[in-house]
Amino acid sequence: MNVDGKKYRTIWLAADGASVEIIDQTKFPYAFEIVKLHTMEDAAHAIRVMQVRGAPLIGATAAYGVALAMRADPSDASLHAACSALLETRPTAVNLHWALDLARKSLLQVAPENRAAAAYTLAADICDEDIAINMAIGMHGMELIAEIARTKREGEPVNILTHCNAGWLATVDWGTATAPIYMCHEGGIPVHVWVDETRPRNQGAFLTAWELGHHGVPHTVIVDNAGGHLMQHGEVDMVIVGTDRTTATGDVCNKIGTYLKALAAKDCGVPFYVALPSPTIDFSLSDGVREIPIEERGGAEVSRITGKTDSGGVETISIVAEGSPVGNPAFDVTPARLVSGLITERGVLAANRKSIAEAFPERVKISA
Questions:
Q1: Out of 173, 196, 224, 244, which one is annotated catalytic?
Q2: pTM for this predicted structure
């Protein structure tokens, strides 16, 4: 996507042909900084501390992490150790598991002396596939937005609410939930995005707002609890969110607070769509509430916040009453019954086992 007129991916092979460069998302929205990953440990750290985040980008970073490990030591023991270390970084996003399973199975079939080159090629292919998938998601989602646009007065925008960051910064390029928005914006269909701040890490206020602004898409940042109010008053035409893991039955795990948006949308008759690439579907799971592991992150993310002072400095302060315990579940699960449709690279699917299985029969066979 564009950053002040210059096109960027979120991860790429550095000019030296060995190290990997990423955009450090912990610095947003106050700085745009590029970090170089030299080792597998660097990649694991980037995932763990959320220098990279978003299920597709986590998977791509993990694949490059394996490549960095194979460059240092292409043995079987090194491959298994790298996959195990990377797998422990984040428990919820299934793309991490998918990318590492693919890397392990593929590279075990390659002679050790050829593994580094094969691993780099595999990581690049995963990145290219992610872009192609997101472009297809964008086209299918664009049709849904265009259908609503036809009911509007000329020049009146389609108002879309999104939660967390399922944008370019969460993928290699285009984003999932934002891909249809970008395509409509570039195709002349007026859109306006309600951007949930998405506490506690503020991925909406910090990341989604940043990328929409730099790409020129009209948007307004709102507090997390404003969505239901806006829906009640007819100011939201549709909700589009991303997902970190979706079950074979259509239950959707996404950033904490998504479930509440889905409930409000159902009550107000607002369509609630989930944009997802097929690697995010976990065909081994049927009940998202019971089976998807929910990451519990540190309480400091809730009790402290970083912001820019009036003097231009960036400081972190405490915002919770001293001595109060803090809980921080990072995700929740939206049951399939609340989902209007799943926007995938193969079309808009009903959120049920039959529709998902018919769209991705090859994935069903693999998981069986």
A1: 244
A2: 0.92
